[in-house]
Structures are given as C-alpha cells and as structure tokens.
Design a protein that fits this description.
This protein is α+β, with helices and mostly antiparallel strands and 155 residues long. It is 18% helix and 10% strand.
Length: 155
C-alpha cells in the first residue's frame, strides 16, 4: 500500500485547516524582522531589528493571539495575501507552497525536528535584537543579508 502524502503536498493553502496552516510556520523569525523597501528596485532589505513581540531566543511571538492589536502593522498571513507579500522570506513555507515549491530539508514538517531550522542557519535566534528604541531612520544602520540555508548534514 503506498504511503499517504503529507498534507502540504496534497492541499492548497486555502484547503488547509487551522492546525495544518499554523504548522507551516517553521519558527525562524525572519518575517518578524523589520524590513525596508528600496524605492528604486522594489527589493526588500531585512534588518536585524525584530518586532518587539518576538522572543529572541525561541523566535516565537510572545503574544500571538493579540499581535495585530499590539503591533498594528503586523500582517496576518492568509492564503489570499501570501502571494502578494513580496517581503516574505524566500525560505518561508507559506511563500514556497504558494509558488508551487517544496518545503526544504530543514523544515520541521520534513525533518521531524524543530532544531533543524537553527542547524540550517535559517533561525534569527542569536542574530536579531529588539527594535525597541530604534527609529525608522536608525534601521538603515541595521540592514542584514539573510543567510542561505546550510547543506543538509549526512548523519
């Protein structure tokens, strides 16, 4: 009997239930970094300055249910808006699946381990710091090129 395919290979983002949708988040924290858009190129530049609600050790929101109320510019991802959000990191599962791509080896749904996000160098833990006390003008001094994932270690 053939093995059943995982939900992310058989369902569209819109077909996923809440638990499936939430499990797509790998907990990297990249989407919670402050971003600047280059007016000339339209490119999004990431900074090391993270949303004040991001737990800098776990890369999880400290008040996920109330995040949009506390941080008015926090964007709640939906199947409809994901394709329009050019600032989503190219490693983001929501973006990857929206673009018809596969989840990478380090994604917890693929690896079965949350630690692979850090092992691959995708997590911002240890790299990001709180935006508190920084102005928008200050962010220019905090631009950061997001690292690419490390290759899978053969064990």
């Amino acid at each position: 009997m053939p093995a059943e395919q995982p939900f992310w290979k058989t369902k569209t983002l819109a077909e996923m239930d809440r638990a499936e949708w939430e499990s797509l988040c790998d907990g990297c924290g990249r989407c919670c970094l402050n971003k600047l858009e280059d007016e000339d190129s339209g490119e999004f530049l990431y900074t090391r300055a993270a949303c004040k609600l991001l737990d800098l050790k776990t890369c999880r929101c400290t008040d996920y249910p109330n995040r949009s109320r506390i941080v008015p510019d926090c964007v709640t991802l939906t199947p409809k808006n994901v394709p329009e959000l050019g600032w989503l990191p190219n490693t983001c599962a929501y973006r990857l699946l929206s673009e018809g791509k596969s989840l990478p080896w380090w994604h917890p749904l693929v690896s079965g381990r949350a630690e692979t996000v850090t092992e691959a160098g995708i997590s911002v833990a240890g790299e990001a710091y709180s935006e508190e006390g920084l102005s928008v003008d200050d962010l220019l001094d905090h631009i950061w090129r997001l690292p690419k994932a490390r290759r899978k270690l053969n064990r």
